[in-house]
Structure formats: C-alpha cells, structure tokens
Amino acid sequence: MYTHNYDFRNRDFQYTPRLAPTPNAAKEAPCRMDEDWEIIAPVSHGDADSAAVRLTRYFTGDLVRFLTDAFGVCLRLRRVDDVTPWLNTPHKKIILVQEEAITPSPLTSDMAGAFHITVTEDSILIVGKTERGTAQGVYYLE
Predict the structure, then answer these.
(1) Which of 10, 17, 73, 90 is 20 to 30 A off residue 3, Cα-Cα?
(2) pLDDT tens track of the chain, all 142 residues?
(3) Alpha-carbon gap, residue 49 to 96, rounded angstroms
C-alpha cells in the first residue's frame, strides 16, 4: 500500500472534495474574524460534574483552541448568565446558546442534537436544541 516511510502523509494532506463548502454554505459577503471578536457562551449551572456542564466547557474550549491553532486568531471566551444583551448587540461575536434563550426559535427539529447557525458579515449565532445541539453546531462551524 505505502512504498516509502511516511507516504501516508502525501495522501492525508491532499485536497479532497469533503473539505470544500457545500453550495448552501456559500455566502456573498464573507465573515472575517480578527482578534477583536469574542465568543459568548452561557454559564452552565448545576453540578460541576454533570454531563451538560462538562460538554459546554469542552466545546467552548475546543472552539477557542480550533480558531487559535487553525487560523492564529485567539478569541476571548466570555461566559455570561444572560445572553440576551449580547443577542441585541452581536457585533464581532460568536454567540453560543440553547433554544430556550431565543424567541422565536429558528429550530424546526425536536432532536436533542439539532442546531441552527446564522452567519452575518460581523457575527455568528449558533443555537442548539440542547447543549448537545450547540456542540454539534460548533463542530459544524469548525
């Protein structure tokens, strides 16, 4: 299969169609992040060992690490009790929320992993049905 040591790297780092955006992901106006952006996420209440709290900490930290490693953009992560003020002024923000914080909800699915992403020129909103849905939206964005 491989003829030389590390030949797998040639295959692994080649362009594949799976890395190309789908037609419905294309935008006319690009969204460009810089160091002035920040990530807004709700504070996870409850037992520190609960699955929801652990998941929220994981996917928010994962997004910060991904943007830093992949694009060299280190964004501030702000955990807030109420995301409503941030929804009213979303300029240069990635806002991660669960469905109950948004009215009306953009979600049409009742599945726990459902999410909706809204991207504008200067903001990104990820709404999940649950913490799991928000995590799936973050992974999709990455």
Answers:
(1) 17
(2) 556 666 655 555 555 544 444 444 444 557 888 899 999 998 876 666 677 788 888 899 999 999 998 888 999 999 988 888 898 889 999 999 988 888 787 787 778 888 888 888 899 999 888 888 889 999 998 8
(3) 21
Tokens of 45: 């209440």
* Three-class DSSP labels, the chain: CCCCCCHHHHHHCCCCHHHCCCHHHCCCCCCCCCCCCEEEEECCCCCCCCHHHHHHHHHHHHHHHHHHHHHCCCCEEEEECCCHHHHHCCCCEEEEEEHHHCCCCCCCCCCCCCEEEEEECCEEEEEECCHHHHHHHHHHHC
User: Rounded to whole angstroms, how far apart are CA atoms 91 and 122?
Assistant: 6
Region class of 11: left (phi > 0), else alpha (psi between -120 and 50), else beta: alpha
